[in-house]
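Record 1 of the preview.
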Amino acid sequence: MSAITIRDVPESTLRSLKRKAAGRGKSLQAYLLDLVTRDGATPSLAEMMERLDREADVALSTSDILDAIEGGRERRW
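->
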């Protein structure tokens, strides 16, 4: 496993991170590892759009969508 060093972290940021870690019953290292791991596993918006383009197989026109919206509105009344 690799190590990461972050330099020049403002004291106010460090205090805030330590409080958040303590509030979750974690060490600062464990808290930051969770944050980095979660962020690394979360796809970017561009990656999600690419996936949608690959996997979505829908042939809807704008008028189809507008008709569906209007139909939903009519059913509410």
